[in-house]
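Before the break, one more example. Copy the sequence into your notebook; we will annotate it together after we see the structure.
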Amino acid sequence: MTTYEYIAKNEQGEIFSGFCENFSNRALLKKDLAKMGDTLIKVRRKKNPKLKNAKISQDEIVTFTFKLAGMCSAGLSITDCLETLHDQTEIRSFKYILADIKKSISSGSTLKNAFGKYRNVFSDFFLGMLEAGETGGKLSETLEASANYLERRADFKRKVKSAFAYPIIVGIMCFLVVSALIVFVVPVFSKIYKRMHVPLPGPTQTLIVISDIVRNWWWLILFLIVLLISAYKLLKNKPAIKARWDALKLNIPVLAKFNRKVVASQFIRTFAMLSSAGVPLVKALEVANIVVSNAKVSEITAELQKSISKGNRVADSLKQFEIFPAIIPQLAASGEEAGKLSEMLNKGADFLDKDIDRMIKSMLVRIEPILTAVMGIIIGFILISVYLPMFDYMTHFK
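Here is what the structure looks like once it is written out:
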């Protein structure tokens, strides 16, 4: 199908713009607009914008959700909200997406189906909350809850990125310094030692071999790195490999406890938010599993769904799995007794998030000196290997 960008006029004489990729020619687009009482004014063909793979930042989605929630709570129709937000956004691909969603809704599509065409932009959690709000008549409330949740997740990702920025920068600097020494400094000393016929100790010989490999075979090293990255991207979504990798993340030494808390927090908060919006518990578990995207959690989710479907309490079901810290089933039990399950689970997720923050800070305190020490050892080894033959030569000269 060809993608068209168009300008049209409705029955009230109001001019609006949009795009469509569901028609093979202009005549069909004009006919479709006429069915809704709209008149096509101008149309042009777009060159394959690839909207299915459009990358919209999480901050943009959070801002969009907050605005949509506020406009819906003010009593505006969803199509009017989308039209206004379409005009406000400056991101071209997002404009196209909002225009297409508005058109789908105007044609009678449900909100979930209209937004669901762009799952790469709008998460499964957002779609689940959207469906709950539409069917339960609480669209503005669920949208605001979604925005708060998405904002919290975006803040968490920013915290993790900023926390590990220093170690990453140190690692990159170490790599650049070592590469410069190996490529430029070591060959100079190697030539000097050959002319002087100085016997080379083991560390120096090893360093020279590494330097020769890097300088003469850099293209092969680069090819292997690209090959490994390509293989990783190709294989990471294979069910068997993904299952092993997900299991490894939850059991790997040092990081296992951290990864388990992150997974538990995401799962519990998503489940709590969806259940508070009126989504059935079994369905809320399914969406929470999709959001977490971990093969091991998928197995746990299937067991939880079976347990809850049999009539067991959420607290008793959660207690069966070690991945959920003891405080989560305890808070769930209190919430079920008081009729405030989602509220208590959210508090449990808050507790886990605070614990995760403490763990990140603790890891950084340990990582920074380790990185500095490793960098010092590597550079020290290179310098000693370079100057060791010269020291031996000076000794013989004396």
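The radius of gyration is 29 Å. DSSP finds 17 helices and three strands in the chain. Try to locate both features in your own notes.
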